[in-house]
Amino acid sequence: MATILLTGATGYIASHTWLALQAAGFEVVGVDDFSNSSPVVLERLHELGGRPPVFERADVCDAAAMEGVFQRHRIDATVHFAAFKAVGESTAKPLEYYANNLGGLLNVCRTMRRHGCTRFVFSSSATVYGDPESLPIREDARLTATNPYGQTKLVGEQILRDLGAADPAWQTACLRYFNPVGAHESGRIGEDPRGTPNNLMPYVTQVAVGRREFLQVFGDDYPTPDGTGVRDYIHVCDLADGHVAALRRLLDAPGSFTVNLGTGRGHSVLEVVTAFARASGRPVPYRIVPRRPGDVAACWADPSQAQSLLGWQARHGLERMCTDSWRWQQNNPRGFEA
Ligand code: WQD
């Protein structure tokens, strides 16, 4: 069976993808520098996967380190997760975001080329759509970046398109994630942001488990049913399955593609809060505060391209996303910290 390299392998989405790939019969080699994840994830992957994970500690920007990885392992395809991903932070630290996110991508692609490996899955984001002109969002919608993080995803996709145009041997898949939430049903791996969570669900789970006093709801004056922001939340295990489907297509059929990985359904902040309180049995106190700069009112996917091209669609609804998020947080009140 094919061997898949995962960069950013001990991160939230990558660790779930690791398990899904193993269950689908792929061999997996993980690479991470633990700059934004915990080594404890490897112990959990061993426990859940039933065998020691094949792992290399390396910075994807380190050419010598990545060359060593490709010398020690015969890689058939790469899924590139490794990137900084905080929108607000990217505005404050553009140099670090361009250097890491684009420098890492370029180094991984150059190393792959030296070793004749030309199958590449890119972790992209709905952020490339900016403030959508119409909903649901199709892959041919206008693309625009409203922050350096989003720009690194836009430019990353363009690099891969140019690479494929220059050398048809390259087959690439750009997967545009909407809002990943939830956790593996075991409750042994999940989202563990460092410091104050930027994203809604981890903040909600930290309020419910008592680590935070209340949730700030960023605005209730949007043109949405209840005035709060609407997003397409997708279970991280559905997202992981989307990567398996994308890799099977890349390895079995010619051609590159870009698809949305979302459910096609939007939920408001207050709907998420209500669903989570019901699923967890815990109150989630909140206060309405002014809008967060850069937020859009509503964003949800048209996932039909992924369904027709990959035979993939999301299976889990909001209730399951909340119950799985809660199980992870309740069992790991301080995340992966000992
Ligand atoms: C969701 C909704 C907030 C926190 C970002 C990135 C995107 C991707 C996913 C990387 C919005 C509201 C949030 C809080 C709140 N990341 N909210 N209080 O902004 O849709 O997308 O994360 O790929 O690129 O842009 O996700 O979870 O931050 O916000 O009210 O404490 O929850 O206003 O309506 P977002 P989010």
UniProtKB/TrEMBL annotation:
<dbReference type="InterPro" id="IPR016040">
    <property type="entry name" value="NAD(P)-bd_dom"/>
</dbReference>
<protein>
    <recommendedName>
        <fullName>UDP-glucose 4-epimerase</fullName>
        <ecNumber>5.1.3.2</ecNumber>
    </recommendedName>
</protein>
<keyword id="KW-0119">Carbohydrate metabolism</keyword>
<dbReference type="Pfam" id="PF16363">
    <property type="entry name" value="GDP_Man_Dehyd"/>
</dbReference>
<dbReference type="InterPro" id="IPR005886">
    <property type="entry name" value="UDP_G4E"/>
</dbReference>
<feature type="domain" description="NAD(P)-binding">
    <location>
        <begin position="5"/>
        <end position="324"/>
    </location>
</feature>
<comment type="pathway">
    <text>Carbohydrate metabolism; galactose metabolism.</text>
</comment>
<keyword id="KW-0520">NAD</keyword>
<comment type="similarity">
    <text>Belongs to the NAD(P)-dependent epimerase/dehydratase family.</text>
</comment>
<dbReference type="InterPro" id="IPR036291">
    <property type="entry name" value="NAD(P)-bd_dom_sf"/>
</dbReference>
<keyword id="KW-0413">Isomerase</keyword>
<dbReference type="GO" id="GO:0003978">
    <property type="term" value="F:UDP-glucose 4-epimerase activity"/>
</dbReference>
<comment type="subunit">
    <text>Homodimer.</text>
</comment>
